[in-house]
Structure formats: C-alpha cells, structure tokens
Amino acid sequence: MTAALSRLLAEVDVVLLDFDGPVCSVFAGYPAPQVAAELVDLLRRRGVDVPPTLASEPDPLEVLRQTGAAGDQDLTRAVEDALCAAERRAVKTAEPTPYSREVIVAAWQAGMPVAVVSNNSAGAVTDYLARRRLAGYVSPVVGRAYAEPTRMKPNPEPILQAVRTVAKPPDRCLLVGDSLSDIEGARAAGVRVIGYANRRPKIDTFRAAGADVVITSMAKLARSLVHQGASDGDG
C-alpha cells in the first residue's frame, strides 16, 4: 500500500479533503442523532407529518436531503438554517482526526494546495480551521450549497468547484474521503481518490467503488506526504 500511495501522490498536485472524517469528527461533542432529532422536531413544529423512517433518522444531512426532496423550499431553508447553526455549535467540540493536522501541513510544505470539500456548511468548516489554526493552510473551503441538498456529494459539483478554484486538471487533484458519496463524487468529477476507511467494513466497499488507494489511518498519508516533500526537495 505504501508504494501505491507514493505513486498516487507523485501523480497529483492538489489535496482535497472531506471534512467530517478525514479532518475531524464534527459531532463528537454534539452527537449527530441529537442534531437530527432537533431537525425532526423543527419539522413537526411546522406542521409536517413526519414518517417513522425520518423520525428515527440519525443523520442530520439525511434529514435535510429528505426535506429537500419533499419540494417545500421554505421548509428546506428552515432546516438548512437550523443545521448550519448546529454545525457551528458542533465544531466547538469537534474531535480532530489523528494526524489530520500533519496531513494538511505536510501537503502544504510539499507545495500541494489543500482544499476542503464538504457536505457540511462552509461556515462550520471555516470556524473549525480558524479555531485549530489551520486556516492559513487551506483554501478554498467548499461547503454545502445553501438549501439545495441535491448538490451535495455524491454530486460532483462541489468537487469540481474546488478543482476550478485551484486551477488544476481534475486528474491532478486527489480527494480524501471517508464515505461512499466521496468515492462516487470523485469518480464522477474525474479526480483521484483515497478512501479513508475509518471503520474496517469500509475497506472492501471503497475498493469495490473504485478508490485508487484505501487507508485505515491518516498517519499513512501524513508520512507519505512528508516523504513526497523531502523527495521534491532533493530534486
């Protein structure tokens, strides 16, 4: 795997990171099921007859998706606003992913621009990066399109937005993601992709979905990036 990872890094110029997973656990201190339940309560207060499947949904992003699919834009905006506020609260107690900082700094030191492409709100991502003194290493931050959940990954649009901003060909960009939507979105955008399998069952899923490389720890990527920077310096 180390050789495959090194070869992959030698073929790209830009690192794009998903946020919740590769960078941090957003809802470590403010659990995602609690946020999802609060969004469901908001729907009920607005007179929505919430189906049982949605009432028990633990993923706040899925609550937003299903609200958007119902076609009521005012309601979708209300859920979006509540979710944005919850995410900005959540990042105050988010738990950094081990070696995520090292990945960001090592990529930057190797001369590789680092961007974040997230289904979380850009405001929450920006707040987190500022709190962790990482904002100077990361640009752009591409977050969730406001009240348009169909534009979230696996839709390739946010990935392509980041690619356009860094002004590199898609196949010279590398996305690191921990979900199937990241792998699928990267493939649709034509960018290379590392599947960060932070749970063992994801390994085979990511390989089957076409990830270029699968890692189980961000430490492997950090070490490879440090080596990549040293190799470039020798050249």
Describe this structure in words.
This protein folds into two domains: 2-26 and 94-234, Rossmann fold; 32-92. The chain contains eleven helices and eight strands. It is an alpha/beta fold and 235 residues long. Strands 5-4-1-6-7-8 form a six-stranded parallel β-sheet, sandwiched between helices. A two-stranded antiparallel sheet has the order 2-3. Strand 6 (173-177), helix 9 (180-189) and strand 7 form a beta-alpha-beta unit. It has helices at 2-10, 32-45, 52-55, 60-69, 73-90, 100-109, 122-131, 157-166, 180-189, 202-209, 218-234; strands spanning 14-17, 24-25, 95-96, 114-117, 138-142, 173-177, 192-196, 213-215. Helix content is 51%, strand content 13%.
Oligomer: single chain
The CATH level-2 architecture of the largest domain is identified as 3-Layer(aba) Sandwich
Give the helix/strand class.
alpha/beta
- Principal-axis shape: elongated
CATH superfamily of the largest domain: HAD superfamily/HAD-like
- Provide the helix percentage: 40-55%
Spatial separation of the terminal alpha carbons:
24 Å
Specify the biggest β-sheet: 6 strands, parallel
Mean pLDDT: 96
Strand order of the largest sheet: 5-4-1-6-7-8
What portion of residues belong to β-strands?
5-15%
Q: So what's the CATH class of the largest domain?
A: Alpha Beta
Radius of gyration: 18 Å
User: How do the SSEs run, as a string of H and E?
Assistant: HEEHHHHEHEHEHEHEHEH
Number of helices: 11
**Count of discrete structural domains:** 2
Number of strands: 8
Low-confidence residue ranges:
none
CATH topology of the largest domain: Rossmann fold
